[in-house]
Amino acid sequence: MKLNKDFLWGGAVAANQCEGAYLEDGKGLSPMDILPTVQLGRKEAMYHPELALEKDYGYYPSHGAIDFYHRYKEDLELMEELGIKAFRTSISWARIFPDGEGEPNEAGLQFYDSLFDECKKRHMEPVVTICHFDTPLALTKKYGGWGNRALIDRYLNYCRVLFKRYGKKVKYWITFNEINMITHIPFFGGGMVIKEDENVSQIVYQAAHHQLVASALAVKMAHECDEGLMVGCMLAAGSFYPYSCNPEDVWEAVEKNQDSYLFIDVQARGKYPSYAQRIWKEKNVTLNMKDGDEEILRCNPVDYIAFSYYSSRLAGVSPDINGKVADGNAIYTLRNPHLDITPWGRQIDPMGLRITMNDLYDRYQKPLFIVENGLGATDKIEADGSINDDYRIEYTRNHIKAMKAAMEDGVICLGYLAWSCIDLVSAGTGEMDKRYGFIYVDRDNDGNGTLERMKKKSFYWYQRVIESNGEKMD
């Protein structure tokens, strides 16, 4: 099928993975700023942030990242040459409110003014994530993160500043990046440090409720600011398959999918699904809702469903298969014997994107927006300076074909934003050598390198895809 001429081809980054300048111009600390590379203990720091708050790991990749803060004009010039029509980034909450509250930091506001102006100058639609695993560390220390209802007001004060300042420059907003990740990595998703003797489920589901209320009120605020603003939710997507046709495996997959969709059900439908009661009972969760919360959720659903897709997932109940795990995934999944796997443990399943898109659209009947999809791989610079990343081309081509097939199935999709248009720090591992971009950045896992930008073979391939609106993919 031929795509609509307004289809948003583009690329995506996140402030905490690309900007660097971690304390410059008044910026406060964010969760990523205390996480080292995986070689230095990133997993320990992510899952035990109480250690990260005290320990000195020596090198922190987000502190410099790829220096997008100083090089954004150069990078956007390359992206204009690439031809992208939409550029997704996030705003660093701690760059606008260094302490997460109080008065906004004008230097931070001016940076994003300049960034969005540059996007518009280059005919790129900004797609902006308000909170991308980026709750200011000051709010973790003072309030305990999103487990405290006080963060709703802090978030809304932040949103109020953003919509007022950038409402005429940014049409597409995402309230929280991959909101379902809060149950898997609470420090990422909610800025929370949970003690060993606490009921983790109670804390994360309560924190998620606070985010859902905050998200709904942000939708309301945005629409009051400008009815033309589009506000979406976002999940880390990837449908769970049953390991076999054993009904127990099938039911396990159903439950895993419900776990993933729970928060998006609320944001899209305006209420908690009936199965939420079962989940809370099983996990010994008693949700504390205030009067008016249900009305807030009901009256302010999102305008579209944004999602990241890297792979499908697999669930089963047999002890014999539960040791066959695909490592490298924040969301637990079994190893699918029918799929290839990357060196970082991520399974490659383009058909899974078509399945996931059909699942989401059938469930919500709202426009979808693929805001992350890409392959993390080691890239080699040849003697002649070329970077022949045919594996990235193949991955992206097959996923775009799957997306188009889903659209032929009747799914409405606003756009495809590759993760990423440029190499950046991996959120999961903190590595630079786990490269996703069409543009190479000369920086290694230890922070060495010139930061020179170089176009990969995939750059020219994606350029042709965009020029032809998805028709030329050879």
TrEMBL record:
Alphabetical list of PROSITE patterns matching this protein: GLYCOSYL_HYDROL_F1_1, GLYCOSYL_HYDROL_F1_2
GO function terms (MF aspect): beta-glucosidase activity
UniProt keyword annotations, A-Z: Glycosidase, Hydrolase
Record's keyword annotation contains Nucleotide-binding: no
GO cellular component annotations of the record: cytosol
Active site per the UniProt annotation: 372
A Pfam family this chain is assigned to: Glyco_hydro_1
Keyword Hydrolase: yes
Biological processes annotated in GO: carbohydrate catabolic process
Gene3D superfamilies: Glycosidases
NCBIfam families membership: PRK09593.1 (NF007158), PRK09852.1 (NF007356)
Similarity annotation: Belongs to the glycosyl hydrolase 1 family.
Protein name: 6-phospho-beta-glucosidase
Species per Swiss-Prot/TrEMBL record: Lacrimispora xylanisolvens
